[in-house]
Amino acid sequence: MATVTYQLLKITRIWATVRTLTQGPYYVGGESLRQNIADSEQGVEITLDYQVIDVDTCEPVPNVYVEIWHCNSTGVYSGVVANGNGDSSDQFNLQSKALRGIQATDSDCVAQFNSIVPGHYTGRAPHIHIMVHTNASLYLNETLGNLVYASHVGQAFLDQDLISQVESTAPYKTNDQALTKNSEDSILAQEADTDGVDPFMNYAYIGNGVGDGLFAWLAFGINTTYSSKVTPAALLYESGGLVNPNASAGRPGRLRWRQRYKLW
Questions:
Q1: Which of 59, 114, 243, 253 is 20 to 30 A from 4 (CA-CA)?
Q2: Which phi and psi angles does 173 have, rounded to 5°?
Q3: Is the pLDDT of residue 256 over 70?
Q4: pTM for the whole thing?
């Protein structure tokens, strides 16, 4: 994966309230602090930068933990076993950590990940889940533990033209599930219908096309004083992954504030 650096030249504020969004049914607690989350998954390489801003002060927020997770190139999430998520008899998937990880925001208040572009599954356009943890403690095993609280839960999306380019490459084109377009995704619509909110990531090609990899970025605001308990679908321990018997189907949290910034 190529190393990419960039400069934030200008930030334009756009204030908005965001309708309550779901964390989804495939969130796993106990994931590790790591930058490269691709593991052995094949796909279009992408470097992802997320900058976190305080909605009250409009200042970047360092030293908070950004957690992301998304499906693989053929629409399957690691860490969970469920109907509609690949082979539901594959119990080994509970032990996989692919395409999941946590990073602390640095001095520029940016958390960076190396991954692959997510594929699609029935009923959803390609997307990346984002969660921000404030006042969290990093344990010796490089996790935040399984008692999870979040100040922000959201989803980020990709440009439809970019999706088309990616989906024409292997292994994405082997996915026989119907592709849901951005215009057909109900979760995306909740964000896009809110004044001032742009749920799409900015992106640039590393080389001459998607085959050479991508760089994508997004800046968003959080209420640093707000924190809500999150119930994972599965729990990852040092001994392995387990289904959470208390899990719900990705219940949404409270209404929260979000801020969208343009990076020039």
A1: 59
A2: -70, -5
A3: no
A4: 0.88
